[in-house]
Recover the amino acids of this structure.
């Protein structure tokens, strides 16, 4: 496979790797099997001995490289042990890796290619180790199997070494920021100011520094609210909010009445509902009211807060239309 890196590194190549570590394997399904692509051979795979505790394969790249993509080969037919969900971690040492990819394989026989786009700052992350962590197989409670892994990227020192320099510079800056954070938290103001002046490294966004001064040192809550409003208008919370999971929250649209009326649908279960997000209209169809099947069709206008009956009995309407 040929691909282009965002930094115009040229054509990627197949990278060599060795099996460095593993969680377990069963019978003759050893980890080294993933280095040979034999889709017609059922035994040509790594298979874990269990699915608990967390299973993994750690690969060691020779030499340190920039990983562009990872290809997963498969068996010639669907298989219950294929990885429905997995994660891949990478880094320079085995004990300190970052998440590079979270994805899954289709349960078919087609090889799949996954691009690695993780950056440290604006530079690709140099990797010596890759760790594949299966999370779920296509068959419930089945062990995990990986049939074939091929890694594409760059191992040319002229490409890798500049990325290593940038990565080490990044790590040094982050270490200094941690020191600055520690000094400020413990009120070592002289050490904080000296280190910041010497390194010319800012601990954080200037707005956060202003917020710390106003809130922690001065206790000026009114100004803090103004700073938070400005941060919100500047979209500083956008990335954080985008990473949060949606939490559904129910609110009563209108209070239930003890008297049933014909201006709103009655109580029911097993009904169908959907929403048109453009017109802000909720549609409700049918269900079971405890004594009979229902075939009525309703629409609720969110903006107006009112129900509208589109059909009292859709079954009768269809039958009359077909006659």
């Amino acid at each position: 496979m040929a691909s282009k890196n965002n930094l115009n590194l040229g054509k990627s190549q197949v990278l060599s790797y060795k099996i460095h570590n593993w969680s377990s394997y069963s019978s003759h399904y050893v980890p080294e099997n993933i280095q040979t692509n034999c889709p017609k051979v059922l035994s040509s795979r790594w298979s874990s001995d269990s699915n608990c505790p967390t299973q993994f394969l750690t690969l060691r790249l020779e030499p340190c490289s920039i990983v562009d993509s990872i290809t997963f080969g498969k068996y010639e037919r669907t298989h219950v042990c294929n990885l429905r969900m997995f994660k891949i971690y990478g880094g320079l040492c085995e004990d300190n890796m970052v998440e590079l990819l979270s994805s899954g394989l289709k349960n078919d026989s087609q090889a799949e290619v996954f691009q690695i786009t993780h950056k440290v700052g604006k530079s690709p992350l140099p990797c010596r180790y890759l760790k594949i962590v299966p999370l779920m197989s296509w068959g419930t409670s089945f062990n995990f199997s990986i049939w074939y892994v091929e890694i594409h990227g760059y191992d040319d020192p002229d490409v890798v070494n500049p990325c290593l320099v940038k990565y080490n510079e990044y790590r040094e800056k982050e270490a200094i920021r941690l020191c600055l954070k520690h000094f400020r938290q413990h009120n070592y103001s002289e050490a904080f100011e000296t280190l910041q002046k010497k390194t010319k490294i800012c601990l954080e966004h200037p707005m956060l520094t202003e917020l710390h001064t106003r809130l922690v040192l001065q206790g000026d809550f009114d100004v803090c609210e103004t700073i938070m409003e400005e941060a919100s208008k500047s979209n500083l919370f956008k990335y954080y909010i985008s990473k949060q999971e949606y939490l559904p929250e129910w609110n009563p649209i209108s209070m239930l009445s003890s008297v049933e009326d014909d201006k709103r649908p009655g109580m029911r279960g097993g009904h169908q509902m959907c929403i048109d997000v453009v017109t802000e209209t909720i549609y409700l169809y049918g269900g079971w009211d405890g004594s009979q099947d229902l075939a009525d069709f309703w629409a609720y206008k969110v903006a107006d807060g009112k129900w509208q009956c589109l059909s009292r009995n859709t079954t009768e309407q269809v039958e009359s239309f077909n006659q």
About this structure: The CA atoms of residues 123 and 161 lie 11 Å apart.
